[in-house]
Write a sequence for this structure.
């Protein structure tokens, strides 16, 4: 395939988020100006964020799925304008590990970043959602250690996320970071596991990363000068 330039926009670092930097001044209105597809969270970890076709959804720990106002803010998010460079039909039953191996086979090169969109039927999927935090903020490993994992069976929905090379560890989530939402927009969260029945799988190959760092005291004073890979794995359940 012919590779063309395509940009991912990211605000803050996953390593900063793991250290409890949960507030910033970037609004959703500004974020959506950089991309119509993506994921992240909200200030104070007030829910998981999923952006599809320019619409932002908040997936809360109480099970609520809402569309937040454009004035709401995010401490960490990753977005792009999704263009499907690679499209395949997958037929299951297929576990998450089998799915991941199949996606490895169709991607152009593991040295690039990819936005991933999966639309189809699932035998089941399990997801978790962060619970809103109050100051003083705890590190994310502590804040997420008692999260409930909720399972939904036999549904149609969308998985959206990013596949990121290992060299970006600490900046982004190395590996696959994905959120899920059902077609009825009544359930969703951070994707933990699933079994796929059938789906359209699309990859958007990304060559450029525009990184915006917060100008907050919390970010400037955070201790980010170490390897956070183990913390990130615990938080992301990888």
């Amino acid at each position: 395939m012919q590779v063309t330039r395509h940009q991912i926009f990211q605000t803050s670092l996953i390593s900063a988020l793991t250290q409890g930097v949960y507030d910033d001044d970037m609004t959703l209105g500004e974020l959506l100006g950089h991309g119509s597809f993506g994921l992240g969270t909200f200030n104070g970890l007030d829910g998981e964020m999923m952006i599809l076709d320019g619409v932002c959804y908040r997936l809360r720990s109480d099970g609520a799925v809402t569309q937040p106002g454009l004035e709401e803010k995010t401490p960490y998010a990753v977005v792009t304008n999704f263009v499907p460079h690679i499209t395949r039909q997958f037929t299951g039953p297929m576990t998450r590990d089998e799915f991941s191996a199949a996606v490895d086979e169709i991607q152009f090169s593991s040295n690039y970043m990819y936005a991933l969109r999966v639309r189809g039927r699932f035998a089941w999927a399990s997801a978790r959602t962060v619970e809103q935090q109050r100051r003083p903020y705890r590190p994310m490993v502590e804040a997420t250690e008692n999260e409930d994992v909720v399972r939904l069976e036999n549904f149609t929905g969308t998985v959206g996320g990013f596949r990121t090379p290992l060299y970006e560890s600490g900046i982004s989530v190395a590996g696959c970071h994905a959120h899920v939402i059902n077609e009825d927009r009544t359930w969703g969260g951070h994707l933990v596991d699933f079994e796929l029945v059938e789906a359209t799988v699309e990859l958007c190959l990304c060559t450029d990363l525009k990184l915006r760092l917060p100008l907050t005291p919390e970010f400037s004073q955070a201790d980010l000068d170490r390897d956070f890979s183990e913390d990130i794995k615990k938080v992301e359940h990888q």
